[in-house]
Amino acid sequence: MLPAQHRLRQSADFAAAVRATGGARSGSRLIVVHANQTDARAGHPPRVGFVVSKAVGSAVVRNRTKRRLRALVHQRIDRLPLGTDLVIRANPPAAQASSPELGADLDALLARVLRRLSTAAAGGAR
To answer: Hey, which residues does 86 pair with through a beta bridge?
Structure first.
């Protein structure tokens, strides 16, 4: 389970992470990762939110998928830069994917969005 300081809870925070103009997004067949960093969040712990829609499956399947994703993120939370907000959206095939498949996908997508965020931050700092 993610500690409270690492959880996105407000719908406005989810919307900011997903729709931000300076944010980054990357997706695959299994999941989509949205990331955003703002000056207001600088120095604060990273926060993560999950979106698992009814298209993924029944409530049992959705909750299981969300728990698996949460556990994978918990193992990787120390890799996230301070002030980062992430939203991870599960696509329907994520329900049948194994944990190693989800983990590999998450690693690849996190690397991609964090690289884009750091590039955008470096470009904006000039």
So the answer is: 35, 48
